[in-house]
Amino acid sequence: MSTYDEAAQAPAIPVPAAAEAPAPRPSVLAGNWWRHLVAIVAVVVCLFPVAYILSASLNANASLTGASLIPSHFTLHNFGFILRGSKATSEQTFGSVHFVRWYVNSMIVCFSTAILTVLLGALAAYAFSRFRFKGRRIGMLFLLLIQMFPQLLALVAIYLIMLHLGDVVPPLGLNTLTGLVLVYMGGALGVNTWLLKGFFDTIPADLDESARVDGATPAQVFWGVVLPLATPVLAVVGLFSFVATLNEFAIISALIQTKDHYTLPLGLRGFIDQQYGQHWGPFAAGVLLTAIPAVILFQFLQRYIVSGLTQGSVKG
Amino acid sequence: MHYDPISVSSTAAPTPAPAAPAFKPSYLARGIAAFSGMPGFVVKIVFLCVVNALAIWAAAVLAGRHNWPAFAVLVLSTAMIDAIYLVPRRPGLIPLKFLVPGTIFLVAFQIAPILYTVNVAFTNYSTGHIIGKAAAITAIKQNSLQPAQSGTTYVMAPARDRSGKLVLILQDSTSGKTYVGTPKGLTPIPSAAVTVKDGAIAGATGYTLVPEKELFAIGQKLTAYRVPLGGDAAIQPQGFNTAVPLQPSLRYDPKRDVFVRISDGAVFRDNGRGSFVSAAKEELEPGWSTHVGFLNFSRGIHDPLVRNPFLRVLVWTFVFAGGTVFLAFALGLFLAITLDKPGLRFQRGYRSIMVIPYAVPGFLSLLVWGGLLNDDFGVVNRLFHIHIPWLFDPNWAKVSVIMVSTWLTVPYFFLVAMGALQSIPKELIEAAKVDGGGAFAIFRRVTLPLLLVAVAPLLIASFAFNFNNFNNIYLLTGGGPATNDQAVAGSTDILISYTYKIAFAAGKGNDYGLASSIGIVIFFIVATVSGISFWRTKALESVR
User: Fold this and answer.
1) Is A195 on the interface with B (CB under 8 A)?
2) What is the pTM of this model?
């Protein structure tokens, strides 16, 4: 998993809120009709899958064949089905759905990874930003370079390391959520560190100095001065780490083996893979339950992302 | 008119804004600040306790197994961590305090795996070449056992002795002599002790026969059971009630490090690539894992079985990544230009809908599109009354993959272009208008160049991201559909998913050596692309 990629995808350029119209708003659509036409086409293309998923989740006909834009019979049964889960047949076969379990597992892994990534990244960034020591420049460049080697390619090695680790300390090994978080921590430093360091550099060193004069230790300066002033950028790094972890598929599918440790990507993919046709409705319900919080969080943090990276610096 | 391109590309390094009116820390900020006091100290101590507890646990296990090198590394690194955090105020150690936590994980789960991978890239580590040479020799000896020429067979019954160990009760079917066979050897027992009924052994004094219904459960154990006869010969069960003596068909000569086939004297030599091979190119199974130099890399050039799929995948990876970025940027820019009109109604509404594909976790969108594009029941086909095999025809699958990836990426470039457009000084556009430039000319000569300067690094970053976009391929088509050249690579596999399949795909064998070497190639490609981007940004920064 590499949060570098996700960070690269971040809308880093300022997106000012829709520019407010100058006082007289044109009363006719005249010159703008084509703009609306293009926008409406774009909106339709964006919403097309969303609409189908919404309709499928509310449709009594749960199969993919029965999917249509307007549900033939409204029902909330699909939500009930996916939330209750089913253990109709044995653990390993088709019928079993543990959506809630997958959800909880995903949240545990993603929150731990996001928080720890931010913490480890910020600690290192603080050292790179505030101290001058041997190997500082080399260290920074090395972090950038090492990120270009996808962790996914070293999967065999990671698997073997986890196998041995689990052999010695079972709670950290293969098929554990803690083990998974440990592996993701391998990517905690890297571009995150660069991003955070860039931000820390803009926090005036005078602030540190005055705190130091008052007798604060470096750790107290870090926790009490630098980090609180960097909350917006911490939120951004955390969000991207969260999303990247949630989307990660390859490492998780190699390290997690039993269904009780499945996360959303593994669970939903396995579920839909085996019964594309018949369980489209419950699948759609699961997709909605996963996507809606993400979209809300995104809309909420969008301001943070934008303002955090562009105007988020502090007064000096 | 002075224009500073950097002000547009405030990518990572934010520029200080004018001071905010009043400093009001948020709850989150205040929460974080709380850690600077007692809570932070407590957390630090708790963390150290956990680390030490885990270290003691691991140390106990390692000591129990006499794994002293690992034990030493563990004890030393734990002692180092404790020293860094507990020894008071050594100015030289302070940066380490902040660097150590992340570095430990970096070393364990990023650097160590990479070093291992680089090492594997120069070996033949793959299915059939997993074990070491000594183990391979033992396995070849085992495999070379064949039913003896003498034609002797034994009537057999699996049984348990008094301590419950599995043994074989045997009766030579020609001489009628009876034996007990164990993994230690063959012991004669008096024929009176064995009851034979209808040509099958029905009982033996001092032993309990394994009941018929339990036979299946011990089937695997039985197949692997060997009763050594001296030399390399042995008796092996065949099914549940007969056994045959086996003789080695190969003889290992440790001095010359060769196997000799007993029947015709053919010599199998170590070929330096982890196999014993005869002059007639016959190979003994299994081989062993060994260093093979640049063989894996040169296979990409000389071996058509590797070269052809690799080149096909390489070209497609560039087409996929380049095509996705180009289309997404073009569409995103087009949408941004369309909406970038002060006073346009519903602008905010349009925008918040258009970013939805970006806000939804990608894996969900990919799984959903997989369903929508399904050619039998898929909504897309039914909606337009067409029957296009979106995911099951090699060419259409490529189109689908690029289409869906574009759908996922457009919002990002829309947001980026929107921001970039709004930061282009309006005076420039006005000036061009005054000079009599048409709308298109202004776009081509003024807007686009300024925009490209700002987004070029993001375009390259997005290219590098899509170059390794495992999910978009794996979750949509799984790399498929299969091609007709029987290669591991399907028609939509990009390098990273191809590599993943080489290493992990069941059915066609796992070639970790080749996969690792392709991984290194990917690293160099991405590093080159990113290096160019880095160098360009540097060049831009030096302008200022």
Assistant:
1) yes
2) 0.79
